[in-house]
Amino acid sequence: MAEINKAPRGTNDLLPEDSYKWQFVEDRLLSTAGLYGFKEIRTPVFEHTEVFVKNVGDTTDVVQKEMYTFTDKGDRSITLRPEFTAGVIRSVIENSLTAAALPVKVCYCGGCYRYEKPQAGRLREFHQFGVECIGAASPAADAEVISLGAQLLRDVGIEKISLEINSIGCPTCRAEYHKALKEYFAGKKDELCGTCNERLDRNPMRILDCKSPVCSEIAKDAPAVIDYLCDDCQAHFDGVKAHLDGMGIDYKVNPRIVRGLDYYTRTVFEFISGDIGAQATVCGGGRYDGLLEQMGSQPHPALGFAMGIERLLMVLESQGTEIPKPKNCDIYIAPMGEAATLKASTLCAALRDEGFEALTDIVGRGLKAQMRYANKIGAEYTLVLGDSELESGKAKLKRMETGEETEVELDKLADAIYDATFAKFSDELNI
User: Fold this and answer.
1) What is the pLDDT of residues 184-228, one digit of tens each?
2) Read out DSSP for 311-379?
3) Tens-digit pLDDT profile for residues 241-280
4) How many CA atoms lie less than 13 Å away from 195 in the CB half-sphere?
5) 3-state class of 302 per DSSP?
6) Taking each helix axis from N to C terminus, what angle separates 231-247 and 139-156, rounded to the nearest 10 degrees?
7) What is the Cα–Cα distance from 287 to 134, expressed in whole angstroms?
8) Is the separation of the CB atoms in 349 and 167 below 8 Å?
9) Which residues of 158-176 are buried (b: 16+ CB within 10 A; e: fewer)?
10) Contact at 8 Å (CB) between 224 and 255?
11) Fewer CB near the terminus (10 Å): N or C of the chain?
12) 8 Å CB contact between 260 and 60
């Protein structure tokens, strides 16, 4: 029986004490993507199952083993999104975004769902940030998107990171490569896992991405896809490398990168961290020039990438990176009595209009308990409000860090906090 007071396996709660870290990372990612012209898009958390089966690829682990699929009350097959790209492209087509100025540049941030064995850096509910660029075929587009990935990782504070790139060609040259792979693996069928035996006829490249140690060892000596590129794909890959060289972006060509989804063509790439062990890929992507046509649209070249938020935070933690904490409560007003409680609510409302985080008692605590609470939440200032303060219109504003008290007029409380804060900073800076 399910434990109703425990989160499902493979999911985590994001608690208030940690949410600022996520907000920091997500804000940095969105703002940096904006420098490259990418605007946020939000798509449904679930799609018709065919969106993923047809476009992610029915030979992938995602479709074969990992999707959360169910039949809804209208007898429709629905799947929680295991990745963003297919749903984003569905939205681009449905909303005719390619009818506007090209390229279409969109970015996203949100949750994805895959039924996997939970482990560090790999959960059943995980969160991704990513970008999609539709309508740009040139190698310069590949280099720009890769450059964005590198800058995003720098801007959130990732230090030890390496870039690996490859080209997996187009359908034309990949057909020849598939023949070579089938010939190589045919003599080793008895050693391959059952899943890879099924892949051998339908999509032998998927064998290169198998997580089985036995299959991985066999795949080490398999033919490399870059040895089978047609002239156009080779020229494109050379162009990507030339642009990266021109930008001063270091990279390594890794002919074993194939990525885990079937829609990729030509350029594929991964950013790898040296700080989080086995689950080292923090960003991966590439081209998928045939996907829009495959989904029923006019053909448009496209490319993009996605990065895992959880993995970014794991890297930052392993580096010892301190993410800036948000400021604490500016002021806690401690009322004594009904009249003071009403006045405290009025004062807090006015202070919030001025941009202060102002709190007061809403649970009926005594004064000592209120002051303990103010201390626990790290209130910068406190102000005790009773009958005498209401009568005089004045009260003492206390800086909690030093215990220093200043008498202030209640109707000028916002100005008093501004002045006190400025005085504090002036003291700290020796102004």
Assistant:
1) 988 888 888 888 888 888 788 878 878 788 888 888 889 999 999
2) HHHHHHHHHTPPPPPPP--SEEEEE-SHHHHHHHHHHHHHHHHTT--EEE--S---HHHHHHHHHHTT-
3) 999 999 999 999 998 887 666 678 999 999 998 766 555 8
4) 18
5) strand
6) 40
7) 10
8) no
9) beebebbbbbbbbeebbeb
10) yes
11) N
12) yes
Residue 16: which of 325, 351, 379, 371 has the closest Cα? Answer: 325
Evaluate whether 57 touches 261 at the Cβ level (below 8 Å). yes
Question: Which residues are registered as beta bridge partners of 297?
Answer: none
Do the beta carbons of residue 163 and residue 274 sit within 8 Å?
A: no
Residue 82 CA to its chain's centroid (Å)? 14
Q: Which tokens belong to 181?
A: 């792979």
Read off the tokens for 255: 């002919």
User: Is the separation of the CB atoms in 96 and 135 below 8 Å?
Assistant: no
Kindly list the strands in the beta sheet with 252-253, ordered across the sheet, starting from the edge strand earlier in the chain.
Answer: 39-40, 104-113, 125-134, 302-308, 281-287, 265-273, 161-167, 252-253
Amino acid at the residue 228: Y
Sheet harboring 394-399: ordered strands across? 358-360, 331-335, 381-385, 394-399, 405-409
d(CA 58, CA 333) in angstroms, rounded, equals 60
In whole angstroms, what is the distance from residue 115 CA to residue 68 CA? 7
C-beta of residue 25 within 8 angstroms of C-beta of residue 308 = no
